[in-house]
């Protein structure tokens, strides 16, 4: 039974990765994160303890206490803050920003979990800290594999390229083969059934189906953007941002203030994905940016997922942070099923 295997999720956030494991039958016992606002959502949906704390202050004894008696495998997973390694980071990476990943490696050394999974942006692959992470796995006797994955190949309805690493004390471990290479989930598959709303409107049926208000100028811009995949290159000169008229900014004209395409996966969800000017986050047809509900569906959160307590007021920026920072639930399922396959193969050899 998968429930014999206990999982702790470092940098758990609102619980997307953990929920993928829960849906795959694993026993998630705890998640660790320094964003205390995630406590309600993580615990309500995953029935696991939320440890509110900075990863740098968490000890191996604390985690071992959370694991308790483990009859099956001890599994440690996590997605360290990825912003430092993102291509959007133009400021360089500081030593302080590397500390969470270094602590992840230290906890592996101290706890010696049976299985480890790490997910991050593909830019991490080029950073020396990743080589150090691998050296730490080597020193502790792990078999491991890693690859750059577009999770749209696995049924996540967005083009989301990520570095995924799996490691095991017990033998070779690999990600399962792609499940959706020939039939990717599209924007149409994901949000076409939702009711039409305008910018600034909140659905009476679904409080998360709410769109940010647009300024008069941005309303003109979205109306001037061709439906189903159009971008700002179609605008008249008076609508173009001054910074985009310069040679240095011209390349951004096709990537921001654009609309999604109905029959393709969405662009990668971020914490800014409900803002029209932050990427290609315009609705394919309606004159607005995507809503919180649409963002959550692109992140494959079930509609039943509770992000905040019923008595809490919905704050768009806070929920966009929860949703955009999350590992898609479907991605969590793929990682969990890869680990399940590995465990079954080990058991078959006994």
TrEMBL record:
Its EC number is 2.1.1.37. Coiled coil: none annotated. Keywords: Methyltransferase, Restriction system, S-adenosyl-L-methionine, Transferase. GO terms for biological process: DNA restriction-modification system; methylation; negative regulation of gene expression via chromosomal CpG island methylation. It comes from the Bacteria. The active site is at residue 82. Residues 202-233 are annotated as: Disordered. One of its GO terms (molecular function) is DNA (cytosine-5-)-methyltransferase activity. It catalyses: a 2'-deoxycytidine in DNA + S-adenosyl-L-methionine = a 5-methyl-2'-deoxycytidine in DNA + S-adenosyl-L-homocysteine + H(+). PROSITE patterns: C5_MTASE_1, SAM_MT_C5. Belongs to the class I-like SAM-binding methyltransferase superfamily. C5-methyltransferase family. This is Cytosine-specific methyltransferase.
């Amino acid at each position: 039974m998968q429930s014999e295997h206990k999982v702790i999720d470092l940098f758990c956030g609102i619980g997307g990765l953990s929920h993928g494991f829960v849906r795959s039958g694993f026993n998630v016992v705890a998640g660790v994160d320094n964003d205390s606002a995630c406590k309600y959502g993580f615990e309500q949906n995953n029935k696991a303890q939320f440890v509110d704390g900075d990863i740098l202050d968490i000890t191996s004894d604390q985690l071992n206490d959370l694991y308790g008696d483990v009859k099956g495998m001890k599994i440690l997973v996590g997605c360290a803050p990825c912003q430092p390694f993102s291509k959007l980071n133009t400021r360089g990476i500081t030593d302080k920003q590397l500390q969470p990943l270094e602590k992840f490696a230290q906890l592996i050394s101290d706890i010696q979990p049976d299985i480890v999974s790490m997910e991050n942006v593909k830019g991490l692959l080029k950073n020396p800290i990743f080589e150090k992470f691998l050296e730490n796995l080597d020193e502790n006797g792990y078999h491991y594999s890693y690859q750059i994955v577009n999770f749209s190949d696995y049924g996540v309805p967005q083009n989301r390229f990520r570095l995924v690493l799996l490691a095991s004390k017990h033998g070779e471990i690999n990600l399962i083969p792609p499940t959706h290479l020939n039939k990717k989930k599209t924007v149409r598959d994901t949000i076409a059934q939702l009711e039409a709303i305008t910018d600034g409107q909140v659905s009476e049926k679904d409080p998360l189906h709410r769109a940010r208000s647009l300024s008069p100028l941005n309303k003109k811009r979205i109306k001037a953007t061709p439906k189903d995949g159009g971008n700002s290159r179609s605008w008249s000169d008076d609508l173009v941002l001054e910074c985009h008229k310069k040679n240095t900014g011209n390349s951004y004209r096709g990537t921001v203030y654009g609309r999604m395409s109905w029959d393709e996966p969405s662009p990668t969800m971020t914490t800014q994905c409900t803002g029209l000017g932050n990427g290609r986050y315009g609705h394919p047809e309606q004159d607005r940016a995507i809503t919180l509900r649409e963002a959550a569906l692109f992140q494959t959160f079930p509609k039943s997922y509770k992000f905040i307590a019923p008595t809490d007021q919905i704050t768009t920026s806070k929920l966009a942070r929860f949703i955009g920072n999350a590992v898609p639930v479907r991605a969590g399922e793929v990682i969990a099923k890869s680990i399940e396959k590995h465990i079954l193969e080990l058991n078959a050899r006994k």
